[in-house]
Amino acid sequence: MKALLVAFTLACTAGVAQAEIQSYECDLHSRQNRGWIPSKVLLSVDAENKRARAYDGAIRASNELANISAETPKDTKFKKTRNGEYRLSWRVTLRAKATGDYRVAYTATLNPQSNALAMRASFPQANASNRPFGEGDCKLVTLESLY
After folding, report:
1. What pLDDT score was predicted for residue 13?
2. Would 133 be classed as within a structural domain?
């Protein structure tokens, strides 16, 4: 009987630990059709522990360029805003066709109430004035988290 109680307690605890992490599949639309804003982003957010991970086509390409497993998600900086939104930011290195490698800084703002996502890219080392922007909707998914 004690073994059953211990097993039940461990199963419940594991469920609670996993429930802290919310995973989202997001579809984005960008007015600037140059490929800097991905059309799909996967996010796993652990708001309680102030951490998040992201994965998209740009992260995959950056991983390949760095000889890292292509499926490795990116740890992000996490901040909860006064409005209750989650602000995630990360940097990747991407290859440009004509000019070599670009360092790209991404910032994504997720509203957990409406599941709306806004994403911006900037090029801190290129002194570029354009800042591609995209927005879209996310849905909670029950797939494994990116952790």
Report:
1. 40
2. yes
Alpha helices in the chain (DSSP H): 2-19, 57-65
Q: Is the pTM of this model over 0.90?
A: no
d(CA 141, CA 145): 9
Strand stretches in the chain, DSSP E: 22-30, 40-46, 51-56, 74-80, 86-96, 100-111, 116-122, 133-141
> Per the domain annotation, does 57 fall within a domain?
yes
Q: How confident is the model at residue 21 (pLDDT cuts 50, 70, 90)?
A: very high
Q: Does some domain include residue 104?
A: yes
**How many domains does the chain fold into?**
1
Mean pLDDT over the full length of the chain = 86
Nearest alpha-carbon partner for 40 in 32, 50, 31, 30: 30
> Which neighbouring-strand residues pair with 107?
89, 120
CATH of the domain at 121: 2.40.160
Range of the structural domain that residue 31 is part of: 21-141
Instruction: Identify whether 10 is part of a domain.
Output: no
